[in-house]
Amino acid sequence: MKKREQNGGVALKQAVLGQKATVFALLIVALGFSEAQTDPNDASVMQKLAISINAGKTLGWTSDTDPCSWKQVYCSQSRIESIQIGHQSLQGTLPDDLNKLSSLVRLELMSNQLSGPLPTLKGLSSLSILIIERNNFSSIPGDFFSGLIALTAVSLDNNPFSPWRIPESLKELISLVNFSANTVNLYGEIPDIFSALPSLNTLALAYNNLYGNLPQSFSGSPVRFLWLNNQNQNQQVSKLNGSISVIQNMTGLVQVWLHSNHFSGPLPDFSGLTSLEELRLRDNEFTGLVPKSLTNLKSLQNISLTNNHFQGPLPQFLPSIVSVDMVAQTNSFCLDVPGDCDPRVNSLLSIAEPLGYPDNFATNWKGNDPCNQWNYVTCSSQGNITILNFQGLNLTGTISPDFSRFESLQRLLLGRNNLHGTIPPELTKLSKLIVLNVSDNSLSGKIPDFGQNVNLIKDGNPDLGKDGNHGGGGSEPAAPSPENGKPSPKTIGEVSKSSNVVTIVGVVIGVLVGVFVVGGLGFFCYRRRQHKFRRVRSPRALEPHSIVVHPTHSGSGSEFQKVTILGSSPGTMELSPGSMAHAHHGFVQMVDDRVPTIGIQTLRKITKNFDKENELGRGGFGTVYKGELEDGTMMAVKRMAGGVIGDTGLTEYEAEIASLSKLRHRNLVTLMYYCWEGSERALVYEYMAQGALSDHLFKWKEREWKPMDWERRVRVALDVARGVEYLHSLAREKFIHRDLKSSNVLLAEDMTAKVGDFGLVRLAPQGGVSIQVTKMAGTFGYLAPEYTSEVFFSLSDVLH
Prior knowledge:
The chain crosses the membrane at residues 501-526. The chain is of the alpha/beta class.
C-alpha cells in the first residue's frame, strides 16, 4: 500500500510538473509569436531600410520574414528598439523616414560603406546610442539632433560630410555623455552651449576646420576627455586660437589634446586639475613661462610642448612623468638645459607678463643675453639696458612697475599701443631716465612726479591726469610766443614742460606788454595791425639737426600752427594763423600742423649719408632708405632726388603730406616727419620691416623666403580692407587712394599690412559718389575701367 501511495505521489508530481512545463512552453511560444509581430509602421520602415542597404544578401533580411526576427535587430513589445549592423560591409543609403522608428533606442551602423545624405533623426526621443562612424555619408541635416533628449553617446567620426557647423540644438541633449565628431568637416566657432550639458564626459572634435576661441561655457564643464587637435590641416586658413585660460576651471579633465592649432598667450594655472594625466600642446603659439603648477602636477603622465614660443628657464617635470615631448630649440627658453636665466632676461619677462607675453617678444627674444640682437632692446657697451622701444607694437595690458629694475634705462618708449591702467609710480626711481613716451594709449589716473629731467610724452591719453595732478613731466612741446616770435627748436624726442612753460610765457608776455605800452602808441598800433600774424625762425637759423615743431593742442591756442620757412638768408617770415603757405618755386612752402619737419642733416646722419647699404628700394618718387634714431626707432626715409623735381612730383609730395597728416589708422602707414629744405624733399615713415606685399607674392623665390600661406594672405587682405574702409567712410575727411596695388601694401614686423603711397590720393566729394579727373594717374594694369571716362569712384580702389 505504501508503495502504491509513493508511486501515486510521484505520478501526481510528474503530472503537475508536466502541466507546468506545458504552460511555460505555451508562454514561450506566445511570447515568441508576439515578438515576431512587428508594428506595421516599424515594419514598413525596416523593409525600406533592407532594400536601400541591400541587407537581404548580406544579413538575410527578406520581405517574407518579420523584421523583429531579423539578424542584429531587437524588438520590445513589437517595436523596433535596436539596430546593430556595424562591420557588415553594407552599401547604399538610409531611407528618409528612419525617424518614424519612434521606439528606437540604439542605432549602430559603424564601419560600413553607407553613403548619401543622412536622414534627420528629429523627434527620436528614446534614442540613446548613435554610432555611425567610418562610413561615406555626404551630409548631415541641420535638425538632425533636434528632440533627441535621451541621447547619451554619439559617434560620427570619419565621414566626408559637406561643411557643417555644430548645431545649437545640441544643447537639447541634456543626457549627453560622449560626443565624438572627429574628421567630419565641421567648421566655424565652437558654440557656447556647454553649460547646458551637465553630464558631458567626452568631447572629441579633432581634425576639422574649427576656428576662434574656446567657449566660456567650458568653464566648470564636467568634460574629462577633450580632443580639439589638428584643425584646418589642409587649407591652413584658420585654426582654434586665443587663450586656453578657461580650462583651469575644467577640474575633471583627464586627457587634453590641443596640439596643432594657433592657441597663444601664457598657460593657465593647473593646480586645480588634479586628475590630469595627458596634456598635448605642441605645435601652437604659446608664450610665457611654463608654470610650476604644471611641472609639479602629480597626476601628469604625458606632456608635449614642442614647437611653441615658451620662454624663461627650461621646465623640469617630476620623475614620475612617463613621456615628455619637448624637442630642444623649438621654443624660446633662455637655456637648452635646466638652470636660471640671466637677471636681465627675468626682468624683461616680468614686464612682458602684464602684457600677456606678446608673441613678437617671444619669437624675437631668444637666448640668455638680451643685448645680443634682441628686438626692441638697446644696451650700453657694459651690457646695461638703456633703451626699451616698444612703440607701435599693438601691445595690450598694463605697464609693469618692474620697469624700475632697469637702473640704467634712459628711454622707455611705449607710445602707439593699447595700454590701459596707470603709470606706475615706481618708474620715478629710474634715475637715468630722460624720455618716457606713453602717448596714444588708454592710460588713466594720476601722473607720477618725474621731476624736470624726464621728458614725459603723454598726449593721446584723454583720461590721464584728470585728477588735476600732472606730475613734473611735460607731454607737449611749447608753442612759440606770438610776442617774441622765437620758438625753441626741439630735437627728436624732446618736449617742453607744459606747466612751467605756461608760467614763464605768462611772465614774459606781461613784461613785453609793459614794454610795448612804454614804447609808444606807434609800436602798439603796429602790433595791432600784425596781431593776426606770427613769426617763425628760418630753418637756416636753427641747428643743423633741429626739428621745428609748433603743434596745435589744447592750451596752445588755435592761432599756433607749424610752418617751415625756406630761403637763402636767415630771418623770419610772417604767416596768417591757420593758413597753409604754398609756392612750388618760391620762398615759403606748404606745411601741415600735424606732422613735424626734420632737417636734411638729421636724415643724412640716421641713414649714414644715404648709404647704398641702407637702401630699401627705388620708385617713381625716388629712393627709400632705412634709418635709425639714437633711441632705436627705425624709420623709412623716402628721398626725392634734388634737381629732377617736376610739378607732378611736387604735387604728389604735397598730397602725401596733406592726406597722411589727417589720417591715423593701424592699417595705414604713418608719416612721422617730412623734410623740405632747399632742393631736398623727403618723407619719413614708420619702418615696415617685412617690406612690400608684392615681394612676398612674386619675389619670394629669388629672396629665398617661404611662400605666404593662405591664412596669412587672408589676414593681409582683411588688414587692407580695414585700411581702405577707413579711407572711404570712417575718416573725418574721406579719401580715394587711386593707386592701390600689392607694391603699395607694406608689412610690419608682425606682418600687419598697411596701405602706403598716398601721392595720388584725392579727397572724396562730400555726399558724392564719384570724382571727376582730367588726367589719368596710377599704374596700368591696376586702373579701373571707368577711369578712362574721367570718373573715379571709391569702389574703383580695387587691389589686384
